[in-house]
Design a protein that fits this description.
By secondary structure, this protein is of the alpha+beta class. The chain is built from six helices and five strands. Helix 2 crosses helix 3 and helix 3 packs across helix 4.
Length: 157
């Protein structure tokens, strides 16, 4: 995405901070305002957190960015792109895009509710494969410990 052209098309001033914000979001996928601020102040130390908040709000209002809200987590931001849903790991907080055809779901929801639907914002919560492996490994280690403890008790009884 050519950020300079995108900002000009939306009649927004092209500033180094806005370009830096957009590049950080592009490279991170989903990122909180605080994380954006920490990364940007390395190159632009005079930039305040308030400036980041104002720019994010402007970029969201201009549909260049989207806010992703997950219950119990800080909101994150992503570049506005084709419609998709999100999956989020409740253990590590990893947030990923999921591109699937949800037109049947949208149609069914519209039929049931009577609404004329035009968009979808959804986050599926769960445990990512990496955390799931760690959990299973820890569960397996606990089982081994319990078995060893049982064997140890049997030897002395």
């Amino acid at each position: 995405m050519n950020f300079e052209r995108e900002l000009k098309m939306k009649k927004l001033k092209v500033t180094p901070q806005r370009i830096a914000i957009l590049k950080e979001i592009q490279s991170n996928g989903h990122i909180s305002i605080e994380d954006i601020y920490e990364k940007i102040k390395q190159n632009y130390p005079s930039t305040s957190l308030a400036t980041i908040y104002k720019n994010i709000a402007t970029l969201c209002e201009s549909n260049i960015l989207c806010e992703v809200k997950a219950p119990g987590y800080k909101q994150k931001y992503e570049l506005n792109q084709t419609q998709h849903i999100h999956v989020m790991c409740e253990q590590c907080g990893k947030l990923e895009d999921l591109y699937i055809d949800f037109s049947a779901l949208q149609h069914d929801c519209g039929q049931v509710s009577g609404y004329r639907l035009y968009g979808l914002s959804a986050i599926f919560m769960g445990i990512c494969p990496s955390c799931d492996k760690k959990t299973k490994k820890m569960d397996n280690q606990e089982d081994i410990y319990i078995v060893n403890q049982y064997d140890h008790q049997q030897q002395y009884n």
